[in-house]
Design brief:
The complex is a heterodimer of chains A (58) and B (173). Chain A is built from two helices and no strands. Chain A has helices spanning 7-27, 31-55. Chain A starts with 6 loop residues before the first helix and ends with a helix. Chain A has 58 residues and is mainly α. In chain A, helix 1 (7-27) packs antiparallel against helix 2 (31-55). Chain B has 173 residues and is mainly α. Chain B has one domain (31-154). Chain B is built from seven helices and no strands. In chain B, helix 3 (31-65) runs parallel beside helix 6 (120-130) and helix 5 crosses helix 6 (120-130). Classes of the chains: A mainly alpha (58), B mainly alpha (173).
């Protein structure tokens, strides 16, 4: 199926990639870089949680 | 038959067919991801249980054998024998057997494109599994892994029971 990702999905993809990179940096023994990646991901991850919570029926 | 008549016939025939049949089945853009996610969800509880048993037997074996010296051949032989006797070896293998299909599913999920938000928790869980973070998540001193776990939990993925801390973390205020 060739469906273009939604804008939210692209944001989510970027946030997850950023969090993944943070773990990779940590595993590579570079905690400073890991922290920087987490900081970068912070805003998009917060937004992501809000967006996903809206999807969940209460 | 005139054009007008043919068109009227086609329109009339279409009206007799229910709308969903005309459109075909509705497939979610993230159907593949969501399906993989469901498969992972089903497999996680058994894996968690097996890993807990394996870990408990590891602790038991470690206590029974006492401290060992690095490079001490007799110590490693002693450990191997004790592991077999305690059942730790088998339990470890069993947990790994249950983990392998989850890991393969996670690899597939990581490669699958994310098209909607609904697939995001699957991507988050897949990332944690693929990076082998599940077993040591409690020990990872980074909010990143917890953020991924929290996103996964929003999609109904169970957190590992050895995760004592609340998954809500600093990165997601």
């Amino acid at each position: 199926m060739n469906v273009l990702p939604t804008l939210e999905a692209r944001t989510a993809d970027r946030a997850i990639a950023c969090l993944r990179k943070a773990i990779e940096e940590l595993a590579a023994g570079r905690p400073r870089d890991a922290l920087a990646m987490v900081a970068t991901a912070q805003d998009s991850a917060s937004a992501l949680r809000g967006m996903i919570e809206h999807l969940i029926p209460l | 038959m005139t054009t007008l008549n043919r068109r009227a016939l086609v329109t009339g025939a279409a009206a007799l067919v229910p709308a969903p049949a005309l459109c075909g089945p509705v497939i979610h853009p993230d159907a593949e991801l969501l399906d993989i996610g469901e498969q992972i969800k089903k497999r996680l509880p058994d894996y968690y249980k097996a890993r807990q048993i394996s870990h408990a037997l590891y602790e038991h074996t470690k206590y029974a054998t006492g401290p060992s010296l690095l490079g001490d051949l007799s110590a490693s032989e002693k450990w191997e024998r004790a592991s077999n006797e305690s059942g730790y070896s088998d339990a470890f293998e069993r947990a790994n057997e249950l983990y392998l299909p989850i890991y393969e599913l996670a690899k597939r999920a990581s490669k699958a494109p994310l098209r909607t938000l609904e697939g995001t928790p699957v991507k988050a869980m897949a990332t944690l599994v693929e990076m082998d973070c599940i077993d040591i998540i409690e020990a990872i001193p980074a909010a990143s892994a917890w953020a991924l776990l929290e996103i996964a939990q929003l999609g109904g993925f169970a957190a590992p029971p050895w995760m004592k801390r609340k998954a809500r973390m600093a990165v997601l205020p």
